[in-house]
Specification:
CATH class of the largest domain: Alpha Beta
Strand order of the largest sheet: 1-2-4-3
Order of helices and strands: EEHEEHHHEEEEHHHH
Helix content: 40-55%
Number of domains: 2
Number of strands: 8
CATH topology of the largest domain: Aminoglycoside 3'-phosphotransferase, Chain: A, domain 2
CATH superfamily of the largest domain: Aminoglycoside phosphotransferase (APH), C-terminal lobe
Largest sheet: 4 strands, antiparallel
């Protein structure tokens, strides 16, 4: 994706985002932002699907939540919970967004490609796939989800204190969106991430009003899924999500 600052016809600051039309997930991002309607996320100002272009509200000053650092991690987690809760809403009528259970295909593709000799332990991939199906089937409700809500995708703003950007756009269990919060920021030392994990789990469940077992389970699923995507996209694992997944499996 290409992202650059811009100005609308009235001279107001905004952001233009460009991608290959119909091939980059930009349509899902636009649908999610339209559904959020500015509540907890930047506003979608205009879209041109034929050109793969979005015009978005600019978050100013735009400081990433990741900038708070590990010493202010509880503050960052509280912000993530607040933004996440603001994003939850009924999915748009007649939407075409995928359901979180569809990510089961990514696990299946990984197993088909690597079998038991891949870069990820096979038992972790199998367990994550099982939990994904189980959690999706037992969700108490279905909401519109960001899909990649973490420290780097929440920016400081003026209209609201913090606004989410870059949604993947999907629907499913509200607790799904806690997953990426547990292994991010990926720039954080892995040992430090593991030390922060117990407090994050407790804080996420408490502040978001979620079942602690589901928070832990979704965290595990998303950590493994992140490594599956890393393997597909980069040919190797990140490392930190795998360490978090292994730690969560022992809790």
């Amino acid at each position: 994706h290409y992202v650059a600052p811009a100005a609308d016809s009235a001279g107001a600051a905004c952001v233009v985002k460009l991608a290959v039309p119909h091939m980059s997930g930009l349509d899902r991002e636009a649908a999610a932002l339209a559904g959020f309607d500015g509540r907890g996320a930047v506003r979608l100002l205009a879209r041109d699907d034929s050109r793969g272009a979005l015009l978005l509200e600019r978050a100013h000053p735009g400081l990433s939540l990741a900038a708070l650092g590990a010493e202010r991690d509880q503050e960052a987690t509280a912000v993530l919970c607040s933004v996440m809760r603001r994003l939850w809403r009924e999915p748009p009528a007649e939407h075409a967004l995928p359901h979180v259970r569809d990510y089961g295909e990514d696990f299946a593709d990984h197993v088909q490609r690597f079998g038991s000799s891949g870069p990820l332990p096979r038992h972790l991939v199998d367990r994550a796939a099982e939990l994904l199906a189980e959690l999706s089937a037992t969700a108490s409700r279905t909401v519109l989800l960001h899909g990649d809500l973490h420290h780097h995708n929440v920016l400081q703003a003026r209209r609201e204190a913090w606004l989410a950007i870059d949604p993947h756009g999907l629907v499913g269990d509200p607790a799904f969106d806690v997953g990426a919060m547990l292994y991010n920021p990926l720039t954080t030392d892995t040992d430090q991430l593991l030390r922060l994990l117990p407090v994050r789990l407790e804080q996420l469940a408490g502040l978001a009003g979620l079942d602690s077992d589901r928070v832990l389970a979704w965290g595990f699923v998303m950590a493994v899924l992140s490594e599956v995507w890393s393997t597909e996209g980069h040919g190797e694992i990140w490392g930190a999500p795998l360490a978090v997944a292994e730690a969560l499996l022992e809790l």
